Amino acid sequence: MTPHEHAQISYGTQWKAKLAKKFNALKPFVTIKNDCGGRYATVEQYGDVELEEKTARHENTPATELPTGRVFMFPKTFTGKLKFDEDDGWKLNKLGVPMPESAMRLIQAGERRMEEIIFAGMLGTATIGNGEDESFTTEALPATQEVIVNLTGSNTGLTSAKIKEGIRIFMDNNAWGQGVDENDILCLAATPKSLLNLWNEAVVTSSDFRAFAGGKPYDTGKLENFFGVKLMVTTGLASYKTGNIATIPMWVKSKVHFGDWKKSTTRVWVDEDTGGDRIRFKFTAGACREQKEGVVKIYADESV
Asked: Which tens digits make up the pLDDT trace of 147-166?
């Protein structure tokens, strides 16, 4: 049977999508910047100022410049295109070419790419600048923003102790907690293996936690909030794993930005040369962390 003869078998009437991640879990928990344009976009910042004690009657203290800084966000463009032969329609015997299903699969691929972009901007090397000009330098996330894998003396997975240590780092940096923006959200994205490791913690399995959480973790099979941290599960951290050691990011929602240069577009047309249907999905976006104090890396051993 030739590929053309096989077409009617290939595309049936009961469309069933193969298992795949269908949406970007991170997007609701970062700051969206919709007005991006040009070769790069910037997130502008102004720094802290301090007051000095007045010690003399006619003292005239000199004025200082307001400290400013910026983080650069660079766009990347992703596109995908699917095609159908001009004869597929009639060979399918009125079943129709699956155009809506094809568009949906392209959109889902775009959502997964957007999640990868956010992780790269959050955990990778940032491009930053200071002062009034466009000069910039690069900045990696320092060790002070990390929770080591052997926090308690030996390698462990994702534990409540590591989450609490991450919270302590945010509080030390005035990035989250009392006295900071009360409406901000502290978030954590874990691999399935690491999140299940947290499920085994005594504090999670205790009757007190179950009662406090309304029984939801075990009734629904989802652990969504822990110590005030919004938890989400993702399979998009594979490239941030070395051996058995996984990188689990924690971040403050307002301090991670996703920039949209060009709205996602889906285009359908008939190719003039072949007469076949074409469908394309395209988007341009970038991401960055606003400042290093807004992100913490937790290292978890997934072999334990």
From this structure: 999 999 999 999 999 999 99
d(CA 186, CA 250): 7
pLDDT at 102 over 80: yes
Domain 142-258+291-301 CATH (choose: 3.30.2320, 1.10.4030, 3.30.420, 3.40.50): 3.30.2320
Q: What is the pLDDT of residue 49?
A: 87
Domain boundaries, the chain: 22-47+67-127+259-288, 142-258+291-301
Q: Looking at domain 22-47+67-127+259-288, does it have CATH number 3.40.640.10?
A: no
Q: Which of 47, 76, 79, 77 is nearest to 64 (CA)?
A: 47
* 66 neighbors 48 (Cβ within 8 angstroms): no
Q: What is the mean pLDDT of the chain?
A: 84
* Confidence at residue 11, expressed as pLDDT on a 0 to 100 scale: 54
Using alpha carbons only, how large is the chain's radius of gyration in Å?
25
